[in-house]
Specification:
The chain has a 12-stranded mixed β-sheet with strand order 1-2-3-4-5-12-6-11-10-9-8-7, sandwiched between helices. It contains 10 helices and 12 strands. The mean pLDDT is 95. By secondary structure, the chain is α+β, with helices and mostly antiparallel strands. The radius of gyration is 21 Å and the shape is globular.
Length: 320
């Protein structure tokens, strides 16, 4: 087995796409999306490593600073192993390699990672090393062709009669010269209340623009914003990878504090689902922290819960 740095070239990205779709068959990706994910990453320390067996990708490992929640000594470490290569020591060796890279850089006080709860081998691996689950985020999926909006469509009328406009982002881009900055401000306000184990670290405007609007799946015609007067008060995003136009991935759906519990999130979701249908989307995938009211809204709309993402944490006493 060979452990090496990821080369960020076409061959490695093609091999990585094959590996990730084998590990997560319900979540298709593309070379363009994988490349964008790396290129849009903020300028923080991180490494991407590959374990090869007989010249083929057997596992992907990443380690680095969690730019979404920066804290001194906090390191995100992730290992994804080909299902055909489990129980061969590959994941253990790659994990050891990544941890050594992190410790060589400086003290490590906390390791965080994530798995799906149905990946029992990975979960047992983490438990054996003392990791504990700190957040559970059920994945849920909607069969869009079978979706019936009739029981919920009054939420749109309710919003519109109360002076709320539910407008696509592509239309708002024509209306507001600073639409990207407004989107950034709205996102930051809502994200402060999204349940996470640690506080959210807002990104600079330039980073936000790169991460959102440079995404190959960015779909401003599907994403909708709730606008009251001149104030943006809610949003529901959907990303559609051009390589997989039948699948939509939900980004942020949320409403600012003064406008919650008024049905706006549901109304926004309905507008997004309507537009997604016109784009030929057949499956909509999302995930939410299990106690987040948004999860219950999705279940009410007909999303079906699937195995959850688990967030794990290991606290260390590293004085090196």
């Amino acid at each position: 087995m060979l452990i090496r740095d990821f080369r960020f070239d076409d061959n490695d990205y093609q091999a990585l796409r094959t590996l990730m779709e084998k590990i997560y068959p319900d979540e298709p990706t593309s070379v363009e999306t994988l490349r964008w994910d790396d290129d849009s990453r903020p300028k923080v320390w991180w490494r991407k490593r590959i374990a090869e067996v007989d010249g083929k990708f057997a596992a992907l490992g990443t380690v680095g600073e969690p730019f979404w929640s920066l804290q001194e000594g906090k390191v995100h470490l992730c290992v994804d192993v080909d299902p055909d290569c489990l129980n061969q020591g590959i994941g253990t060796r790659l994990y050891t390699d990544l941890e050594a890279l992190a410790r060589a850089r400086g003290p490590v006080h906390r390791l965080i990672t994530g798995t799906q709860e149905d990946k029992s081998f990975a979960n047992d691996f983490l438990k054996e090393r003392g990791f504990e689950v700190v957040i559970r985020e059920p994945i849920s999926e909607l069969d869009l062709p079978a979706f019936d909006e009739t029981p919920f469509v009054h939420k749109i009328h309710q919003a519109e009669t109360s002076g709320i406009r539910l407008v696509s982002l592509v239309d708002l881009a024509r209306e507001y010269h600073n639409w990207q900055e407004r989107h950034w401000q709205l996102d930051a306000a809502i994200m402060q209340d999204v349940p996470t184990p640690d506080p959210f670290s807002p990104q600079p405007l330039e980073t936000f623009i790169r991460q959102h609007f440079g995404n190959p799946g960015f779909s401003p015609d599907v994403t909708h914003v709730a606008v009251h007067g001149d104030e943006w008060v809610g949003i529901s995003e959907l990303y559609i990878d051009p390589s997989h136009p039948e699948v939509g991935g939900t980004g942020l759906t949320g409403v600012t504090r003064p406008w919650r519990r008024k049905g706006l999130a549901t109304a926004l979701k309905l507008k997004v689902l309507r537009q997604a249908q016109t784009r030929g989307v057949r499956r909509v995938i999302t995930d939410n922290e299990e106690n987040n009211p948004m999860f219950q809204i999705n279940l009410m709309l007909g999303f079906k819960a699937k195995p959850a993402w688990l967030g794990w944490q290991l606290t260390l006493d590293d004085k090196s």
